[in-house]
Amino acid sequence: MLKDISLETLNHCAKCSTCTANCPVAKVNPDFPGPKAVGPDWLRLSLNAETKVDYPEGIEYCSNCKNCEIACPSGVPVASLNQLTRAEKLKKKGFRLREKLFANPRLLGRIAVNFAGLVNFFTKIKIFRLIGKTLFGISENISFPAYAHKSFSRWFGSYRQKVNKPKNKVVYFPGCFTEYNKPEVGEALVKILNRLNYEVIVPEFKCCGQPAIGNGRLDTAQEFAHFNLSQLKKYVKDGTPVLFSCPSCLLTFKEEYGGLLGIEEAREFVPYFYEAGEFLRGLQEIDKLLECEPIEGKYAYHEPCHLKASGVGTPGLELLNEVAVNKIVPLDAGCCGLSGSYGLKAEKEPITEAIGQNLKKAIDRHAPEALVTECGMCGVQLNNVSGLPVYHPLELLAEKITKES
Amino acid sequence: MYDLVVIGAGMSGLMAAGAGARRQKKVLVVAKGQGALSLSSGCIDFNPGLLEREEGSPYFKVREVVEESFNFFKYLVKRCGLNYVGSPSEQTRIFTTLGTVKNSCLVPESMFLENPDSYERIIAVGFKGYFDFSPKMFLYYAKKSGIFPGLKETEEVYFEPGVRTVNTTWLAQALTRGELKEKLIAFLKPYARPKTLMVFPAVLGDLPEDRLFKEVEEVLGVKVVELPGGFPSVPGQRLHKALVSSLKEMGVNFLFNAEVIGYKKNLRQVTSIKIKESGGRVREISGKAFVLATGSFWGKGLRANTEEICEPIFQSKVYLPRNFAEDFNFLASGIYTDEYLRPIKELENLYGAGSILANSNYLKNNSGLGLALATGYKAGLLALGDGEVRRNA
Amino acid sequence: MKKLKTTVLIIGGGATGTGLLRDLALRGIDALLVEQKDIAHGASSRFHGLLHSGARYAVKDPNAARECIEENLILKKIAPTCVEETGGYFIELNSDDPAYTAKWLDGCQKAGIEVREVDPNHLKREYPLLTKEVKRVFEVPDGTVDGFRLCWANVWQAEEYGGRYLTYHQLEGFEKQHGRLTAAKLRSSLTGEEVFVEFEVAVNAAGAWAAEVAQLAGVKVNLLQNKGTLIAFNQRIFQKVFNRLRPPSDGDIWVPHHTITILGTTSVNVDNPEILRPTPEEITKLLEIGKELIPEVLELRMLRAFAGIRPLYLGEESNSQDSRSISRDFVIIDHEKNDGLKGLISLVGGKLTTYRLMAEKTGDYIGKLLGIDRKSKTSEIPLTPALAVEEKNRIARRYIVRAPKIEERLKGVTEEKQVLCECEGVTVAEIKEVARWEDTHNLEDLRRKTRLGMGTCQGLNCAHRGLGVAFTELLEKSQEPLEQLKEFLKNRYAGQKHLLWGEQLREAELLTGLYGCNFSLFGGTDDV
C-alpha cells in the first residue's frame, strides 16, 4: 500500500505548495513545515541514502483534516501519505495511553454514557483537567464533548418504527458521536426516514476507525474496518443504501478503507455509501415533506472538512435552504481546528485555539442565533468559540418535517 | 436540477457562477483541487489592446462585457473586504519581489503604486529567516527601473518574527493576529517619515478582509505597497477565498473534491455530467446549462500524452500551436469555440471559458486572469440564455 | 593582459583534465588547468552517472572490463563521497538470448568481476513496476558517480597541492616557436580580460572540443562526435543500477543518481559538439526500450532530457562510423610523434570510470617528457574523506574540503538551516557559502555545486529564492542577476521541452506561469 501512495505522490506532485497554503495547522504553527515538506518533499529525499531523514520533523502536528488533499491540483494523496508516515513514527516512538484511549471512542463511550452526569461534571472541573494534562497529556482547557444519558442504540432498540408496506430499507451507521454524545441526530434521521417510508436498520458496528487513524493506530483502524465491512456485506449485496450522519465516518468508509488502509474490497461498497442529507435530497418524495412549516431564525453553517473531502457537496445546507425563511449563512471559515481528538491533546491546544479564531471572526461578523454543522466534533469547537447552540441539519429538518400535523 | 453547472473553480468558473448567482439562478460549481487562480499573483492581467483582435480570438468574443465583468468582479471581492484598483482599459505598473515590473489592469489595493515620482525614500521590509524576498535585490532593481525619479535614499530593514523557520502562510497569518502586529508597527516606526514608501512581500494578512497594509499606512503615515512573489502566493489565496466566499454567500453551491469524468446528452443538449468522488464513487448531476472552465494543462482542462492532446470531458476539438515546445507556444493550446463560446456544435448548452480556450496564451498576451474573468462572466451569461448579450455578440 | 607561467597547461575541465591536474599536483609537477565554461559542464556531467563494474564490457572488450573493475574498486576506496556503492543488476528477460548470458558470465569471471545470481521473484516483489518478463538476474559491483562532485574534488585537492585552475577562460590560440608550442592565449568570457600563459607542455583534454583545440595548434585530431541522449526521471525508481543482459545497446541502463534516476543512452554521430539537443526520435526510442523493463514507464514523472557528447577517437585513418564498435579506450597522442609539433599532447576517448588511470598514464608520460621521475599517488591518497553515506553527513560528503565553513554556518540555532531548495534539501547556508567561493560565478555554477533547482520543480521555488539569498555575491561576479535567472530558467526549460506531456507539461506550465506571469520576468506585451 505504501508503495502505491508513494508512487502516486512521486509521479504527480508538482511542488506547487497549494497544499501548504491550505493547511490550517501550518498557518498557525511555525513548527509544522506543512504537508508538502513532511510529505512529498520528505518522501523523495528519503529514497536517497545521502538525503534521507528517518522521519520528517513536525509530522505529528498533521491533523488529517484533508485540506491539503482537497486543494491539491495534481491529485496527490498527501494526507494519506502523511498519515502513514506519522503512524510509523508514532509506532516507533511508542504509543501513550492517550493515543490508545482516543483511538477507540467506544471504550470510554460505553462506560461514560452510563454515568453521563458524573463524567460530564468531572470533565468540567479544573483540577481533574489538570491531572489529565499532567498524567496523560490531555488538554486542560478545550471542552470535552458531553456524553448523553442514553445511547442512540438504547433509544433505537426501544423505538417502534412506523412504516407502511411496501417499505424501503436503509442501513444507518450512527458513529460514536451520535451513539454516545448526540443521539438526537440519529433519532432525527430515523424519524425523517420513517416519514419517507424507509425502515432503518442499524447492525452492530465498531467505531469507523478515523480516531484510530488520527492517533496513528492503523492496525486498530483496519480491525474496525474489517468488522464494519463484514457487518455491511449482506445489505450491500442487496443494494441497500448505507447512510452516515457523521462526515468523518462517511469519509473513513468511503476513502480511507480502500485507500489508506488498503482494503481492496472496500471499493466495491463505496457506491452504496451516502451522506444522510445527500440521500434525502435525492428522494423525490422529500419535496412534499419540504413544504412544511418554515425554519425561522438566523442560522450560520459550518462546512466540516471531512464533508468537503468526501466530495458530496453540502446537501444538508441545500435542504435547509429549501425550508429556511432566511438563507443560511455559510461561515466559510475553513477548518474548525479541533479535528476530532487532535485538539484534546495538550500540545495541540494552542493550535486548535488559533485555528478556531477564524471561526470566531466569521461568527462575530454574521452574528447568527445558532449554528449548523454535520460534524459532532466541529460542533463542540463551534460551541467552544461562540457559546451558541449547534445543530445537525437533520435535527432542524426533523423538527419541522416530522411534526404531526 | 441546477440552472447552471460550472466545471472548475478557477477565475473563469467562479465568474460564470457569479453571473448566475447575480440572476438568482441555482448554480453549482464542481471542482477538483485548486488551480492556477490561487497560485496567481492576485493581479488581473489584461491587455486592452488585444480587444481589437480579429474575429475568432477569445478577446473579440468578450469585448462588449469586459467593462461590466470587471466591475462585477470588483463588487464580488469587495463583499469580502478585498478591494481592487484599476480598470480593463488601462494597465498599471506594479513591482514584484524580484524587483521586476509588472503591467496589470486590476490590482489589489495593497499593491497599487500611485504617483511613484512622489517618493523620496523607499524602505524595503524583509523578515529575518524569510528567504522569499530579498530587500537588497528589490531595491537594486527598483532604483534601476527609473520609476522613482525623486528617490533620494533607500534602506533595507529586517523584522524578526521570532520563530525558527518562517513560512509564507504562517507569516501572513501571524502578522495580523496578536502581538506580532504591534511589534512590527513599533519596529517600523523609526523609519516613518514623509514621502516614504514601504514595500513588503505580500504577507500582510492571509485573509481577504485583512487590511494590515492600511493599518500600517494610517499609523505610520507612510505609503505601503505589497509585492507579489513566489509560491505559496498569499494574494492568490486571498483572491480565491474572496470569490468563493462571496459566491457562497450569494447562494452558489460548491462541490469540491469531485472530478468530472463524462457527460450525458439528449438530442443537442447536455443533460448531466458524471462525477467521480472520493473513494471512486460515480454519480450524475443534471443541469440546464454547463460551463467548461477547467483550465489549461495545469488545471487539467487539457491533457497531453505522448500521442495526443485532448479535452477529456467532452472531447472538444483542441487547437495545437505550431512549434509547440518553442517559446512556450504550448500555452496557446486550447479548445475551439464558436462566437457564443460553445466548443461543440452539437451541444448547444455547453460553453467554454478561461485558459482552456484556444489562443488564450497568457504569457504572450499578458492577460491570464483578465481574459479568464471576462470569458467566464460571458459564458455564464450565455449559459443562462441572456438575450441581450447574444444580440450584442 | 595577465601573464602566467606553468610547466603543464591542461586544457579542459572535465574528468580527464581535472584528473590530470590532481595527478600532476600530487606528483609535485606545476600545472594550470583552463576551462572554457564551468568545471564538468560537458560530458563529465552529461552522462548516465554509472560507475562501471566492467560487466557491461565483459563480452566485447575484456581489457576494458578488467580496467573498469580495477578502477571501480580504487574509486570506491579513494572517493567514497563521490561514488555510491549501489551495486547493479544485469537482467535477462525472456526475450533475451540465453547464449549471451553464458558468454557474459564467462567474460565477467575472466575479468575478475564478482557476479552473484539473484532470485528474480525477489526483485519483482521489491520493484512492482518491473516487467513480469524477468528471467534471470545477476548482481555486480556497479556503482554511481557524481561527475560534478568528482571533478571538483579533483580540482580542490589539486589546489591544496599547488595546482591552479581558471574557469570561464576560452582558448583563443597558441604561440609557436621553432616547432614547439610555448604559450597559449586565453580570454575570460566573464570579464573579457586576456590571459597569456607560457608553458612547457600543453595537454589537450578538451573532450568533445579536442579537435578544435588541436586545430588552434595547427594539427589534427580525428574524432567522432557521438551524442548520447538521456532522460532524468523525478525519483529514485531503483536503488541499484539496472542493466539489460544483452549486447550493449541504446536505452538499456537505468542509474539511480541521488534523488533521481537516469535512463540512457542513445548513440548518434553529430558534426558539432555544441549540438546537445536530444531529438524526439531519440526520446521515443529510449522510452520504447525503457518500456521493456518498466511497462508503465510513461506513467513515471520525467524531469528533463539531455545529451552529452562522447568524443571517440578514430585513429589516423579509420573511417568507421559505427560508434559502438569503436573502442571507448583512451589514447595519448604526442603530436611531436604524429605531426612533428613539440609541446602538445592530446588526450582523447576513454570513459569516466577509468579517468584516474588515464591521468596516471598521462602523468607518467609527461614526467618522462619533462625528465621528472615521480610516481603517481592518485590511487593511494584519498580524494575525499571516508564518510559512509549512512552517516547522514550530506554536507561533508558533498562539499568535501570546503564543507567545514558550511558546517560552521549550520551550527546552533540559525535561520540558515532553512531549506531553500525543497526538492533537493539544499539549505540557505550552502547557497550563501558557495556563492562566496571564487570559483562560483553565477546561478548555474551554484546549481552545479549544490543541486539547487535540479529536483522536481526545476527551479520553480528555489531559483528566485537562491538569487535573492546570493544576490550581493552574484551581482559582484558577473552579469545582472536577473539575466542569470533567465539563463538558468532557459536552461531548465531546454531540458523540459523535449518531454512536454503529462505531468512534465503541467510543471512547465507552472514554471512559465510563475516566472512569466506572476513575475513578468520575460516581459509581456506592453499596453498597446
CATH architecture of the domain at 288-401 in chain A: 3-Layer(aba) Sandwich
Q: How many angstroms separate the termini of chain C?
A: 48 Å
Uncertain segments of chain A are none
State the separation between the terminal residues of chain A, measured CA to CA: 54 Å
CATH architecture classification name of the largest domain in chain C: 3-Layer(bba) Sandwich
Helix content of chain C: 25-40%
The CATH class designation of the domain at 288-401 in chain A is Alpha Beta
Class by alpha and beta content of chain C: alpha+beta
- Main sheet characteristics of chain C: 9 strands, mixed
What's the tally of helices of chain A? 24
| Approximate strand percentage of chain A | 5-15%
Average pLDDT taken over every residue of chain A: 93
Please give the number of β-strands of chain A. 8
Summarize the structure.
Helices cover 28% and strands 23% of the residues of chain B.
Tag the structure with descriptive keywords.
A: 405 residues, alpha/beta, Rossmann fold, 4-stranded parallel sheet, 24 helices, 53% helix, C: 528 residues, D-Amino Acid Oxidase, Chain A, domain 2, 6-stranded mixed sheet, 35% helix, globular
Question: Would you write up a description of this structure?
Answer:
Chain A is α/β, with parallel strands linked by helices and 405 residues long. Chain A has 24 helices and 8 strands. Chain A has a 4-stranded parallel β-sheet. A 4-stranded parallel β-sheet of chain A has the order 6-5-7-8. In chain A, helix 12 (175-181) crosses helix 13 (183-195) and helix 22 (349-366) packs across helix 23. Chain A is globular, with a radius of gyration of 21 Å. The termini of chain A are far apart. Chain B is an alpha/beta fold. Chain B folds into 2 domains: 2-83 and 237-392, FAD/NAD(P)-binding domain; 97-227, Rossmann fold (3-Layer(aba) Sandwich), CATH 3.40.50. Helix content of chain B is 28%, strand content 23%. Chain B is built from 11 helices and 19 strands. Chain B has helices at 11-22, 58-62, 66-78, 135-145, 168-174, 179-188, 212-220, 234-249, 362-365, 368-383, 387-392, and strands at 2-7, 27-31, 84-86, 92-95, 101-104, 106-108, 121-127, 153-159, 196-201, 223-227, 253-256, 259-266, 269-276, 282-292, 303-304, 309-310, 318-319, 334-335, 350-352. In chain B, the strands form 6 sheets. In chain B, strands 1, 2, 11, 12, 13, 14 and 19 form a 7-stranded mixed β-sheet that branches. The longest helix of chain B has 16 residues, at 234-249. Chain C has 3 domains: 2-43 and 148-221 and 325-370, FAD/NAD(P)-binding domain; 81-145 and 224-313, D-Amino Acid Oxidase, Chain A, domain 2; 394-518, no CATH class. In chain C, the strands form 5 sheets. In chain C, strands 6, 7, 8, 15, 16, 17, 18, 19 and 20 form a 9-stranded mixed β-sheet that branches. Chain C is globular and about 65 Å long. The termini of chain C are far apart. The model of chain C has no long low-confidence stretch (mean pLDDT 93). Chains in contact: A-B, A-C, B-C. At the A-B interface, helix 2, helix 3, helix 5, helix 16 and helix 21 of A face helix 5, helix 8 and strand 11 of B.
